Amino acid sequence: MRILVVGGGTGGTIVANNLARRLSAEIRTRKVRITMLSASDRHMYQPGLLYVAFGQMTPDQLYRDQASLLEECIDFHVDPVEKFDLDHNKVTTKSGKVHEYDILVIATGSRIVPEQIPGMAEGADTFYSEASAVKMFKRLREIEEGTVAVVVGVPHKCPIAPVELIFGLHDYFKARGIRDKIKIKYHYPIGRIHTIKEVATWAKPEFERMGIEYETLFNVSEVDVENKVVRSEEGTETQYDMLIAIPPHRGMEVIEQNNLGEGGWIPTDRFKLTMNGHDNVYVLGDTTNLPVSKTGSAAHFEAEVVSENIASIVKIGVPVRDYDGKVYCFIETGHDSATYAMFNYQNPPDLKSPSKPMHWFKMAYNQMYWTSVRGLL
Amino acid sequence: MSDSKIVDARDTFCPGPLMELITHMKQSNVGDTLELLSTDEGSGADVPEWVNKVGHEILSNEKIDGVWHIKIRKAK
User: Fold this and answer.
1) What residues of B are annotated to the active site?
2) Would you say A275 and A284 are in contact if contact means Cβ atoms under 8 Å apart?
3) Residues A154-194 pLDDT 10s
4) Interior CA angle at A80 toward A366 and A372, to 5°?
5) What residue of B is the nearest CA neighbor of A232?
6) Least CB-CB distance to A233: which of B8, B14, B54?
7) Cβ contact (<8 Å) for B9 and A219?
């Protein structure tokens, strides 16, 4: 049995490691082989970028060598896939090598596309790459007064990030002693301040307590860099001194180039996590078209289901579990408190009051991630 | 309307039905018709609120067996 994992992010790495342990006997006896193909020899802890943007972490703290995270029996290659031939169970990589498989796992992730909004790439700060997070922190250090506007593109990964950003901005400017000179204005695409009703209900009085201005039903249409104005599809506009954008996302180009899914999102069965029409192809993490948060947490819980099912297919011929839509998101509510939202397809989150211990837990998780991604936690 | 593109956002809390719809509207062409399926009680009101504000067109909006079926045409 040849299992091929395409993508070395959170989901792909957990699947590969989890399978390596579940199928250790089969791998030793050469009945199973696990191969991973990735675009990078490094693995980034992406949630750490928000801390970089506030000067609380440095970029080097976000990385580990990908090979160091993988079980030794996993055949790992830095050689990204360029062509998927699902009808013949094979892929072709950038180097021209062909890999055949019996089971394929696609976990290629997503990318930001600020260039889809005129002016956004030039006019807005973001924290979705190492360079942009450092740049954003430098801008935050420089600003002394004025309006900091936050806008949110659609779709975007980590739907909690816009709210965490607001809490972080409030605490950052407060710590600098200039909060009264900075107006923070938050813009959100739908008719409340967060897409999860329970989060919106909880966050609204918090925003009011912090003096955050907000405008809902604001989908960014353009950024007028010269005049420092951001405009919405709904016909409104905001003048800013610093603009921070959660940029719109798309799936990876290789998914679109191979016509595997509109927008780069692969049509996926929400319970089985198989690609529609291809029972031997599993999809997880940001790569799916599922109406599930694009977060490392979702990728993690999906990876557990996928690896358990692939292992059981090897051992007994059938999968054993469905994915129930589980997601667990920490919500940093400033620089010294946090809460969380846990939900699945059927049960909405039940938000608790923020606390310092939950923030400490998040701080600990930032390190524990490396255990988690090894499939141990 | 049999050629409507279905946006199945039933049983989802995040990113939620309206955010799913906006995602698919951005991927669609002017004149395309989408049908949003949602089990969120609020969709019957908050989806038309956004559609009307941004200038698209609601073609129908009905609840069948606990599921909102909202058809929208992309107008711009």
Assistant:
1) 14
2) no
3) 999 999 999 999 999 999 999 999 999 999 999 999 999 99
4) 20
5) B54
6) B54
7) no
Contact call for residues A182 and A139 (beta carbons, < 8 A)? no
Contacts of B54 in chain A (CB under 8 A): 217, 219, 233-234
How high is the ipTM of this complex? 0.91
User: Token pair 């802890």 is at which residue?
Assistant: A45
Q: Exposed, middle or buried, A353 (CB in 10 Å: 0-12/13-18/19+)?
A: exposed
Could B19 and A189 be called an inter-chain contact, meaning their C-beta atoms sit closer than 8 Å? yes
pLDDT tens digits, one per residue of A260-315: 999 999 999 999 999 999 999 999 999 999 999 999 999 999 999 999 999 999 99
Label the pairing between strands A33-38 and A75-78. parallel
Residue A145 shares a structural domain with residue A189: yes
Residue A293: list chain B partners with CB under 8 A.
14-15
Instruction: Specify whether the CB–CB gap between B37 and B6 falls below 8 A.
Output: yes
Closest CB to A196: pick one of B13, B26, B49. Answer: B13
In this structure, the number of other CB atoms found within 10 A of the CB of residue A102 comes to 15
Taking a C-beta distance cutoff of 8 angstroms, is the pair A120, A247 a contact? yes
Select from B8, B14, B26 the Cβ nearest to the Cβ of A154. B26
Q: Which CATH number fits domain B5-73: 3.40.50.300, 3.30.1490.20, 3.30.110.40, 3.30.930.10?
A: 3.30.110.40
Domain identity same for A153 and A225: yes
Whole-angstrom Cα Rg for chain B: 11
